């Protein structure tokens, strides 16, 4: 075969302009360029399919001492549960219970539990205005405990512990409520606290110290320290 000689000096390279013409410029795609129609669209959940399509039902027992206040404030309790939460409610006088259930118009699966907590808070002694906060605010809870859970007291010792918690004309209880931003109900030896998780802890610690025998002045000082810290956060 005949050999072919190639002179490297005679090889011509393409001009830079030609190379630039051959380049393909890729521009970044912004989020605005994405077509909205490409996103998946889901239909709203049918209220009838909530909880597997089953009807939810709650019963709240009303103590005898709260039956009269319940009858007096029934309209204030009935209105938000029916109009806002779209639930059905009735008062069963034979069993002394308030019965709540969902219906076809109910849109929130957690509405029945909110309504039950609202009625339970009222049955424990809270006012309608304070208990209704459970319907508006998500991060509110209700905690109950007894004095014997903190310390076993009997007779005069138990009565003095209750007196230390309440204070003269309810002063100590009001101070704890205002500092911790909670609501407190003293029902004999039982204590009920309504508020957020952190605020309930502040009120519970103050009440526990009073039960254990701490003088109110020391508890006030601790509450003032806590109040100043809370102000610094905000």
UniProtKB/TrEMBL annotation:
Biological processes per GO annotation: ribosome biogenesis
Location of this chain's protein in the cell: Nucleus, Nucleolus
InterPro entries: KH-I_PNO1_first, KH_dom, KH_dom_type_1_sf, KH_PNO1_2nd, KRR1-like_KH1
Domain of life: Eukaryota
Gene Ontology CC entries for this record: nucleolus
Keywords: Nucleus, RNA-binding
GO molecular function annotation: RNA binding
Main location: nucleus
Domain called K Homology: residue spans: 139-212
UniProt keyword RNA-binding, yes or no: yes
Family of the protein in this entry: Belongs to the PNO1 family.
Quaternary state and interactors: Component of the small ribosomal subunit, ribosomal RNA processing complex (SSU RRP complex).
Known role: Required for small ribosomal subunit (SSU) synthesis. Has a role in the processing of early nucleolar and late cytoplasmic pre-RNA species.
Protein name stated in the entry: Pre-rRNA-processing protein PNO1
Annotated organism of origin: Zancudomyces culisetae (Gut fungus)
